[in-house]
Amino acid sequence: MAETPDPETIPVAPAQAAELALRDAEGDLNPAFVETVAAAIAAGDATRLNELAGDIHEADLGALIEALDADDRPRLVELMGREFDFAALNEVDDTVRDEILEELEPETVAEGVRELDADDAVALLEDLDAEDREEILEAMPDVERVALDRSLDYPEESAGRLMQTSLISVPAHWTVGDAIDHMRDADADDLPESFFEIFVVDPRGKLLGNVFLDKLMRARRPVPVSEIMDEDRRRVNVADDREDVARLFERYNLVSAAVVDEHERLVGVVTIDDVVDVIQEEAGEDILALGGVKNDEELSDNVWWIARSRFLWLFVNLVTAFVASSVIGLFANEVQKMVALAILVPIVASQGGNAATQTMTVAVRALATRELTAMNAMRVTTREATVGLLNGAAFGLLTGLAAGAWFADVGIGVVIALAMLTNLVAGALGGILIPLTLERMGYDPAVASSPFVTTVTDVVGNFAFLGIATLWFGLGAAAH
Fold first, then answer.
1. What's the CATH number where 43 sits?
2. What is the rounded distance in angstroms from the CA atom of residue 425 to the CA atom of residue 155?
3. What is this structure's pTM?
4. Three-state SS for 452?
5. How far is C-alpha 105 from the geometric centre of its chain's CA atoms?
6. Quick check: is 254 in a domain?
7. Are residues 244 and 309 in the same domain?
8. Residue 44 φ/ψ region, left for φ over 0, alpha for ψ in the -120 to 50 degree band, beta for the rest
9. I need a surface site. Which of 18, 114, 291, 391 has the fewest CB within 10 A?
């Protein structure tokens, strides 16, 4: 009789393994995996569900949650129990996260939040309604609740909200051996999940310097940590804006930075993984703002909310479109006399708008990264005007030749060439000067620049083309 093989030694067919893989060859979620997880949820099979999703990374778990039906999401959290990593909820859209947290018991959420680093816990709780947040905090032990309350008291976009409070600090009189033994003997729950450095403080908690782990491990045990610490290491204030923190990391290639309060006492540490998230969020907000979309809009938001949030921007653009059209109205008689003008007028405005958008995008980004300042504004403005002049001359020539050949009229070619040159220079100047002006006035140039820049190019383009045509062909005189 053939021996029955041990199920654990039976090889899995490649097709079957691929079928249950989390992601496919292109890196997208595998629909078969999502369906298998959904089936486990429907069957209430917690064991099977933890086998499938218990060990996957928080980012993958977040993607899996978003791929599930809305009703299955809170059930997944409940069935996985303590195996569910609540950090995954920071990887999903705000709307999805809020819907899940509303369905869960405060005690369940509190238990999950306790397992998170302080920065992840703050990120999870900060967008909740005050009442819901308080319910969750009330379900937590006093020590942890007080620590989270203190972090949530910092300004919303500050380093205090971004930092994690779990770190390792040692007194200056300790030796390298003391520091190493302290980390080896400490309870695992008392140490950060991952860290790059230890901090040296005085008896009042004031930050004196830091020591990176590689430097610590190379030093002899009897050496005092005060002799190998870096006293000039970059640090951030707890009230610093998170964009300023991100720029500091970018400028000095930091992987972590100590956070101190107004008395220079060590209160936390910001790490590169959190800064990467900030950079991504800020870049995404600027891109959305340039398109007139609110920075908190998510793919999971409902249609009515999205329509309302976009209405104001579209209304502003409608008003500016009427302003541009009124310029054409000033030349209504001239346009009626030459059909070519009606056909060609959108070309000048459109090309000027495209050139202005290019300049505006560069200017808004440079302002956001502090590359464009009052010191170099004149030089950058001159550069952009020169670029507009060169492109205006090139495209004016191309457009003039095409329009002249199209209508068999050299004059119309000259008119549109001059108008194109004028509007591309105007677009370049508008694209740089309008964001600079808005920044100086205290407004966000990413949000407010686009309608003004579009209006400038439409008005200048229409007025230049129709005005030059009127003068060139004597259309105004012919009307009398």
1. 1.25.60.10
2. 42
3. 0.64
4. helix
5. 31
6. yes
7. no
8. left
9. 291
CA–CA separation, 348 and 19 (whole Å): 55
| 12: in domain | no
Domain that holds residue 173: 169-288
Amino acid residing at 294: K
Of 396, 467, 385, residue with least CA distance to 427: 385
Residue type, 42: A
Of 155, 180, 210, which marks where a domain is finished? 155
**375 and 457 co-located in one domain:** yes
**124 token code pair:** 């999870």
Q: Which of 4-18, 204-218, 453-467 has the lowest mean pLDDT?
A: 4-18
**Residue 293 lies inside a defined structural domain of this protein:** no
List residues bridging with 235 in a β-sheet.
258
∠403-405-407 over CA atoms, to 5°? Answer: 70
The CA distance from 308 to 472, in Å, is: 47
Q: What DSSP string runs through 410-441?
A: HHHHHHHHHHHHHHHHHHHHHHHHHHHHHHHT
Q: Which residue has the tokens 């002006």?
A: 437
Both 321 and 430 in one domain: the answer is: yes
The strand pairing partners of 207, in sequence order, are 201
Tell me the two tokens of residue 85. Answer: 């990593």
Q: Quick one: pLDDT at residue 478?
A: 42
Q: What does the pLDDT look like over 430-480, one tens digit per residue?
A: 999 999 998 888 887 877 777 788 888 888 888 888 888 888 887 654 443
Residues 446 and 286: their CA atoms lie apart, in Å, by 6
474: left (phi over 0), alpha (psi -120 to 50) or beta: left
Tell me, yes or no, whether 4 lies in a domain.
no
Q: How many domains does the chain have?
A: 3
DSSP H/E element including 261: none
φ/ψ of residue 157, rounded to 5: -100, 25
Tokens 């060859």 found at: 25
Tokens of 347: 């070309």
Supply angle C-alpha 343, 347, 349, rounded to 5: 120
Same domain assignment for residues 474 and 325: yes
Last residue of some domain: 155, 188, 217? 155
CA distance 84 to 115: 10
Residues 62 and 181 in one domain: no
